[in-house]
Amino acid sequence: MLDLTYDTPKPKVISGATGDWELVIGMEIHAQVSSEAKLFSGASTRFGAEPNSNVAFVDAAMPGMLPVINEFCVEQAVRTGLGLKADINLVSAFDRKNYFYPDLPQGYQISQLYHPIVGEGEVLVELSEGIARLVRIERIHLEQDAGKSIHDMDPHMSFVDLNRTGVALMEIVSRPDIRGPEEAAAYVGKLRQILRYLGTCDGNMQNGNLRADVNVSVCRPGQYEKYQATQDFGHLGTRCEIKNMNSMRFIQAAIEVEARRQIAILEDGGKVDQETRLYDPDKNETRSLRSKEEAHDYRYFPCPDLMPLEIEQGWVDDIAAALPELPDAKKARFMQDFGLTDYDAAVLTAELENAAFFEKAAQGGDGKLAANWVINELFGRLKKDDRAIADSPVSPEQLAGIIRLIKSDAISGKIAKDLFEIVYTEGGDPEAIVEARGMKQVTDTGAIEAAVDEIIAANPAQVEKAKANPKLAGWFVGQVMKATGGKANPKAVNDLVAAKLAL
Amino acid sequence: MSIDEGTAAKVAKLARIKVEPEELPHLAAEFNNILGFIEQLGEVDVDGVEPMVSVTPMRLKRRTDGVTDGGMQERILSNAPDAREGFFAVPKVVE
């Protein structure tokens, strides 16, 4: 049986002038739903379209236009909730979050403050072998994205593109269970992996399809444990929210620099103001958005354009029944069924495409061997050519063929590498190539014996040396392998050399 | 609940409506009238009554996930006071 218990990681500690400080982090991840159309309109969600071309009158907030919800988006929120082992709320409702900004033509964002569609769940974030943090999910709600403002096209004007306006987002809110910058990045990575497995969000951070708001506070050692015991935030420090980050590297840097800023204030006898901040990667600092904050009184109220969202338990059950195998389960299965190491299983399950490729290659009859070949040979070769696994010239079936040949002792490991290169560059059926090019391993002991005899007869001086020092027998093995073009079975050669030299 | 002039000024600011200071007392009084009217609803005993969200027995209407709209940049921009290169152009907003 696999040991699936984990130790809790140590929180990040920063030493200040007055003692140690610990970090407490909660995150809000905005994940764009992988839908064709927007949350409340039939306009396309396609990235990179002409500005303002993916816009319906509803998105532009033309008077009299009414939102109609995209059922697929609701389904994806439910699927995501189930994937995070969360409670699904059969009745949820939409609210208006009011604020003014040029890229928000309605003057409000339709969101779910009071009754989100998904309640409490959890994500297991593995940091290294046997060490993992269980991060609690507070809620997931559906909401509209805003448009895009571009400030650098003109010195006096801002340019607004509403293509993104109204695109469906899932806001996934964690509890403050994350305890350091690396954990935060690992949490985002794990969530992204699960979303990609579920197919509910493509996880493309570069395009902004997955973005994070990070809440950071600092406290003295021991305070966090008091919070966990009582769930009373009074034991924790005042938090600041760093908005809208779409890079793992920046998330880590921002948390580090923000924690140090707060520590400096506290150690100076000051007080941290709860506020929204922006991270500037060029200066590696966070900046206050206070001017905007003052206006942030969102005056939420139920959206009168939308009835409550009622879904049926039967529908939820159908979605649950159709859930794919998720990363944790797949990794455990790879370790259990194929005997893979924790590391290999983690590498192969990082992306669904890799896992699927591996499983097909493992049909060659040896999972461990298949894992080695996928991770070391295939990934290495693909990386060299800057190719993705989706356009690998070697198919999993071909790799399974190579593995079958190794497994049946038809070819040696060294020849297998040559064969892999041939299949990679020229294609073809591995077995047919081996036949056609005479790459088969010589297992005929008579032929190997002849080669061994020949080498021994030709090198009397080496024979004497080897008799004195048996380690030198390897030289004979090498010579025999060379003489047979690498096709002799190494084990047979070893045995024969030892026997002939009477070692 | 009582709305003072300060709250009235804040609400006006949030709604981006310009209000002259001399209008504030009148506005605050109007707010209080409206709120007082609504507060009368508190006198109704609703114990055991299920909240009603609509006067018609209707389920939230849904659409399937298909692109059925958009592709009309020109019409979307046609009411804009200023539009350039396919974008709405607005006075610079810098954070």
Automatic annotation (TrEMBL), chain A:
Keywords: ATP-binding, Ligase, Nucleotide-binding, Protein biosynthesis. Transmembrane segments: none annotated. GO terms for biological process: glutaminyl-tRNAGln biosynthesis via transamidation; translation. Residues 356-501 form the Asn/Gln amidotransferase domain. One of its GO terms (molecular function) is ATP binding. It catalyses: L-aspartyl-tRNA(Asn) + L-glutamine + ATP + H2O = L-asparaginyl-tRNA(Asn) + L-glutamate + ADP + phosphate + 2 H(+); L-glutamyl-tRNA(Gln) + L-glutamine + ATP + H2O = L-glutaminyl-tRNA(Gln) + L-glutamate + ADP + phosphate + H(+). Its EC number is 6.3.5.-. The keyword Cell inner membrane does not apply. Belongs to the GatB/GatE family. GatB subfamily. Allows the formation of correctly charged Asn-tRNA(Asn) or Gln-tRNA(Gln) through the transamidation of misacylated Asp-tRNA(Asn) or Glu-tRNA(Gln) in organisms which lack either or both of asparaginyl-tRNA or glutaminyl-tRNA synthetases. The reaction takes place in the presence of glutamine and ATP through an activated phospho-Asp-tRNA(Asn) or phospho-Glu-tRNA(Gln). Heterotrimer of A, B and C subunits. This is Aspartyl/glutamyl-tRNA(Asn/Gln) amidotransferase subunit B. It comes from Mangrovicoccus algicola. The lineage of its organism: Bacteria, Pseudomonadati, Pseudomonadota, Alphaproteobacteria, Rhodobacterales.
TrEMBL record, chain B:
It is an enzyme of class 6 (ligase). It comes from Mangrovicoccus algicola. GO terms for biological process: glutaminyl-tRNAGln biosynthesis via transamidation; regulation of translational fidelity; translation. Keywords: ATP-binding, Ligase, Nucleotide-binding, Protein biosynthesis. The keyword Nucleotide-binding applies. This is Aspartyl/glutamyl-tRNA(Asn/Gln) amidotransferase subunit C. Its EC number is 6.3.5.-. It catalyses: L-aspartyl-tRNA(Asn) + L-glutamine + ATP + H2O = L-asparaginyl-tRNA(Asn) + L-glutamate + ADP + phosphate + 2 H(+); L-glutamyl-tRNA(Gln) + L-glutamine + ATP + H2O = L-glutaminyl-tRNA(Gln) + L-glutamate + ADP + phosphate + H(+). The keyword Nucleotide-binding applies. Allows the formation of correctly charged Asn-tRNA(Asn) or Gln-tRNA(Gln) through the transamidation of misacylated Asp-tRNA(Asn) or Glu-tRNA(Gln) in organisms which lack either or both of asparaginyl-tRNA or glutaminyl-tRNA synthetases. The reaction takes place in the presence of glutamine and ATP through an activated phospho-Asp-tRNA(Asn) or phospho-Glu-tRNA(Gln). Signal peptide: none annotated. One of its GO terms (molecular function) is glutaminyl-tRNA synthase (glutamine-hydrolyzing) activity. Heterotrimer of A, B and C subunits. Transmembrane segments: none annotated. Belongs to the GatC family.
